Amino acid sequence: MPNSSSDKKIAAQKRGNRLGFWFFETLLKFFGLRGAYALLYLVCLHYLLFDRKAVANALAYVKRRFPGAGFFKSRLEVYRLFISQGKQLIDRFAMISGKTKFDIQLKGYEQLKNLLEAKDKGFVLLTAHVGNWQIALTTLKKMAKPVYLVMRQEDNAAVKESLHIDTQDTLIRIISPEGYLGGVVEAMQVLKEGNIVSIMGDRKYGFPAVEIAFLKDKAYFPFGAFSIAASNNCPVVVLLSAKLGQNKYVVDVSNIIYPRYNSSKEKREQLKVYVQEFADILDKYAQTYPYQCFLFHDVWNPD
Amino acid sequence: MAENKEEQLKAIRKKLKELLVSHLSLEDVVPEKIKDDEILFGEGLGLDSLDAVEIVVLLQRNFGLEVKDMSQGRKIFYSVDTLANYIYDNQKK
Predict the structure, then answer these.
(1) Which secondary-structure segment (H or E) carries A198?
(2) Cα Rg of chain B, angstroms
(3) CA distance B1 to chain A (A)
(4) A24, A55, A84, A152: least CB-packed within 10 angstroms?
């Protein structure tokens, strides 16, 4: 959660516009997924050549996941990452439109069911910029509990309209991290009422972070999700998803972390072990699905 | 009545300062050094969101209070004084 009490607008670069989304939508309508995917190769090449910031952000991950890759090889990996993310955005689009059916496996739902049955206590759903978290959340509709996403309101109107992030489902609500104290007090309250709070665990967005190891290097992940869970005595369910084939995804909720304090001293240090546990899960994910880690941010930079 | 209220507020402020020092990661700060009107978050005492989580828990465990109206959050969490007033007003009910 933000260090400052001032409600600083969290900066985000806007990519995509209405015309672009219309174009993809039309291709999807007439040529299906493959047709829409085909255009991606050109669009992503444009980003690779002209969007230096996007490339630099992706390189932070690529350099660590593919150590030893030279100039051209690392750019090729960035290109593959861009295409992979583009495909997943199109999938999300196709899924919402209802014209394309997806086979989605749900891993670990039995454990989650036990948590859902505890009506008086909620839990933290910890996500990351990997796979297709929008599809993952949509799949979890069957939880039939309100999910409060701690996320910036999408300020790119074209993206917002195309992804239906906060309009599609009344069970999905937004807590803005740009609000007072990063929405932390609100998150505490909704958890206490037995709801689910979903937080991105791999980006600081100006919130306090701890140093952990990720992809064999020192990285900085926020610990807000774990402090909220430890204080509420509730678990953290890690929500991951991965694309397995053209119309196939897996949504994994089998990793559950139980952050607890042993004493009232050095709480930040105590949380570090849980943040590391989460980073290890992401590390394993990156080894298995190297082109589905869409961090696009230098999490190894302490600033 | 007014004197009684001020006495109670004074006691709440004292207890709050002691709780803040014992539960938050405040280095080299003693309760007596925290001013009643010192801004808690950002500038002033320099607390962050982890501390906000702790204060929410402190309010629940020590005073049986929850902050349900988030539009009041900024006003309530501003200083020891505003927190004490919130506790005084809501414990009475």
Answers:
(1) strand A196-200
(2) 13
(3) 33
(4) A152
ipTM of the complex: 0.80
Alpha-carbon distance of A28 to A37, in angstroms, equals: 9
| Interchain pair A4, B73: CB under 8 A | no
What's the whole-model pTM score? 0.86
Residue for token digits 């969490």? B77
Structural domain spans, chain A: 102-292
Q: What is the CATH number of domain B2-91?
A: 1.10.1200.10
User: Hey, what amino acid is at A252?
Assistant: D
Banded pLDDT at A120 (limits 50, 70, 90): confident
Which residues on chain A place their C-beta less than 8 Å from a C-beta of chain B? 1-6, 179-182, 184-186, 188-189, 192, 207-208, 223-224, 227-228, 231, 264, 266-268
| B29's tokens | 């700060």
Q: Give B58 to chain A, closest Cα distance, Å.
A: 10
Taking an 8 Å cut-off on Cβ atoms, the answer to whether B70 and A185 are in contact is: yes
Q: Tell me whether B70 touches chain A (CB under 8 Å).
A: yes
Confidence of residue A235 (pLDDT cuts 50, 70, 90): very high
